[in-house]
Amino acid sequence: MSQATAPLPPFFNDKPTSDPARRVADAQLFAQAALAVEAAAGLPVAEAALHAAERAEVSQAEAEEAARAKRHAFEMNKLSKRLHREVGQAITDFNMIEDGDKVMVCMSGGKDSYGMLDILMNLQRRAPIKFELVAVNLDQKQPGFPEHVLPEYLTQVGVPFRIEEQDTYSVVKRVVPEGKTTCSLCSRLRRGILYRVATELGCTKIALGHHRDDILQTMFMNMFFGSKMKGMPPKLVTDNGEHVVIRPMAYCREKDLATYAEHREFPIIPCNLCGSQEGLQRQQMREMINDWDTRFPGRVDNMFTALANIVPSHMMDRSLYPFETIKATGAPVPGGDIAFDEDESCGDTPGAAPSGLPGEASVSLASLRIRKAD
How confident is the model over 230-271, as pLDDT tens digits? Predict the structure, then answer.
């Protein structure tokens, strides 16, 4: 009569396992058993067992690293699709690029202009219309500016380009007093040169790398320091009437572009002429908006959406709405004012993003009984 044997522990199960943690545990168990055997019988198996345990640990680390890489690739793919979709939507919404256009892509060497060129080149390959791209960089002769970086990159990606050399740095330093902001003069000089180059190249559109955050910052700068409700349009005609300027990344968030630039490993050139100056008005606006975005999720999105939902009759600009001539017609006006309400649509509503403001109860006037005065 055969003697019944106890079931083998899981370690001795011949079936392979795909669980990395299980493999490490099995290898360590084997190592411990081997040490016990060696101590009891002097058999030289412990060293091999320890190596097996080490290999199992390395295998687990490699598996974890592969999983992290897979997650990162998935997130970067989502980000790339989102940015391409946002740029394509902006181009469509504002008719930025048309069939036969020659677009001058202004390259500063920063993350935004690199991202703009990269996305436009991808869209160019699959767009239903034909358009040309030519990258243009203005070398302003800043000390230490790496002149080789952009030509090497643009040659590598295979886009036609032109490097325009103009010593605006010396002009700015000579004219602007020490310690004062150089942005305004630098911008005017750069703009004039780029307009001239666009004419020489026969470009029909000039693409700038401003994004959603730039647009909001400009709006608040004009409000706080210029007493104007004026933003940064996604498309405009230049002051001289000769060129059309477009901002294809008007819908893109700056932090998305920063992540995309890091992922794509663009050779970023830092700006030492104006971007490193402390106390700039734009930097103040950036910090304010970023703080709001952190403390009140959804607020910045609402502000940006509001730029496309302007109601002139509810502002105070007499050049946009004929306040002097409006009369009561006796008929209700769709979207008209509710004259005695202090807050109109300011409270949180079910299903809406939190606004950070106290909610208001919705009351139907028909349900109220109002007694006529004696």
Answer: 999 999 999 889 999 999 999 999 999 999 999 999 999 986
CB contact set of 329 (below 8 Å; sequence gap of 6+): none
Q: Which of the 8 DSSP states describes residue 235? A: E
CA 194 to chain centre: 25
* pTM of the predicted model over 0.90: no
How do residues 76-133 score in pLDDT, each as one tens digit? Answer: 999 999 999 999 999 999 999 999 999 999 999 999 999 999 999 999 999 999 999 9
Residue 33 host element (H or E): helix 20-41
Q: What are phi and psi of 360, to 5 degrees?
A: -120, 140
355: helix, strand or coil: coil
Report how far residue 298's alpha carbon sits from residue 226's, in angstroms, rounded to the nearest whole number.
27
Determine the Cα–Cα distance for residues 137 and 160; give it in Å rounded to an integer: 12
Residue 23 and residue 17 in contact, taking contact as beta carbons nearer than 8 Å: yes
Domains of the chain: 24-62 (no CATH), 96-306 (3.40.50.620)
Cα–Cα distance, 257 to 249 (Å, whole number): 9
Q: Strand locations in the chain, DSSP E?
A: 102-107, 132-139, 161-165, 205-207, 235-237, 244-246
Task: Return the closest-CA partner of residue 285 out of 231, 359, 349, 209.
Answer: 231
- Supply 246's token pair: 């477009």
